[in-house]
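Run: sequence + FE2/S2 (inorganic) cluster -> complex structure.
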Amino acid sequence: MQMLTFVMPDGTQRTIRAAAGLNVLYAAALHDVPHLCGECAGEGVCGSCQVLVEAATGWTPPERSPEEELALGIGRNPDRGERRLACMLAAPSGAALRMRIPPLDEAGRTR
Ligand code: FES
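>> structure
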């Protein structure tokens, strides 16, 4: 199992346990975590599932791929250095991630 803590845009927190290797977006959806959407259904192209990884224990997230950086708009917004696509993050057993979900307008989501 992996332990995933989400800090909502209003500062409230929610922690869930998910199967190892399950991507963060899918795990959040299975547990009805609000404020995190995936407009491209986890294809890694829309950038709507952005999270800011605040802490990771038991695992180091891999470097972002060029495709992930494109979806995040890193070239246009260099201040997004800590952002990741939730659909591209999948932690192994025993890992714990703490992530902040940015506000809608900050993440560029359309809903
Ligand atoms: S759901 Fe579209 S990039 Fe993650």
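>> summary
The mean pLDDT is 89. The pocket of FE2/S2 (inorganic) cluster is lined by residues 25, 38-40, 42-49, 71, 85, 87 (CB under 6 Å).
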